[in-house]
Amino acid sequence: MKKTFVAMSLLIANSALASELPDFLDVNDINNAAFKCLGDAPTYSKVDQKYVDQLWDETLTYLRAYASALTNGEKSHCLNSDEALFDSTEGGKKICVMDRRDMKLMVKNIYQVINNADKAKQCFGAREEVDWIYNPGGELTKNSPVAQHFKRTTFDEFFETKVINKEVQKLGKLFTKNFYKMVTGDEVKMPSAFPYDISANALPNLWAAAGWFPMYAEESKRNDKNFNNIRAGYAYAEIFGHWGLLRIDEINGEKVGAEIGMTVQSVDTLYPYHNHAVSEMYYNMRVPACTNQFKSFAVREDSPLVHTIKEDDKVRRVQFDAAQHNGHTQWLAGSYQQDPLIYFHQNTIHAFDVDGSCEAKPEERAIVSVWARSNAHDKRNDYGTTLLCESAKKPGTPANKDEVIQCDLTKLKW
């Protein structure tokens, strides 16, 4: 009965999509949009197509709710926009996120997909053949016929065969064991801007079969500046984007920069200070176990708190004193209820600190987010590379919260 209800809910939601175009979008840009896929349009057997259709329905449900949340001004002081924290220093700074041009384009692209679903679907596939995205396995897979049908390497196999560091391997297996509990249950809740639930509680196939990447777990020079627990305790999945299930190169002749998906970060971890030349955003989907459990740091590259050390035609090396007397005030708390949306301009230095001391079973908990990058099509600006900062005192090692950090920022081209 429950599966039937979910299926009917998705059918009702998706059948009404084309009639719900917001009046701030130009109907001439949306209706009858033309799509150019990234790569060849995938084809499937009749048996496979049944499961692809299930995955597609949940993808449309996910995208519709996300676009609605971004343009929901009822809970903010904004017009047709949610409000986002973008800098945590000096008391914190916020913007109406839809004032950003990249956000407008991303929402427009989502509605172009929703209102031309049959044409957009030609660019959609299960991506079973991609060997570097994985199935979390466990209960998540057991609850998803789609994830069971399309076979991927599991997290268990990944950490066993592709991870060299023994501590990362051990912690990664613990992450795998508890992944289902991390992304489901009463602790996972949508921010109020969302019209309905798009978590793993409501969309089990999408969360199980999207294809997850533990992006720091394998050995790389970059990870010299990382912590083992976050290497083992972080993964993301991409639904819409260059590496995701829905791969669109152009709509109406314009490049698509949207990358939309979800992230999971274990508690008791510090995602180190880092930056990238692509704008990014997160919606927090967790009920905190205690006050100030989920804290974020963000400082823009043009902040007077950021000092240039040296630069060339491609990179600007900067430092920020995280140990200054009021350094603890530079981190701001958030949750599904409190400042759930955070937006990072290009080259913003940011980090996430998740406290596990107040969790009864910290190994079973994580911060879960709806995640997106908005201008990933601009390859001039080093698309896809996340640059970890380092200790200024000990270059090449991870930067802690109580010292001067050093970061290399990409010289943006425009």
TrEMBL record:
| Record's keyword terms, sorted | Signal
Gene3D superfamilies per the record?
Jelly Rolls (2.60.120.10)
Signal peptide residues on this chain, from the entry's feature table: 1-18
Family matches, as InterPro entries = RmlC-like_jellyroll (IPR014710)
Superkingdom classification of source: Bacteria
Q: Which organism is it from?
A: Shewanella algidipiscicola
Please give the name of this protein: Uncharacterized protein
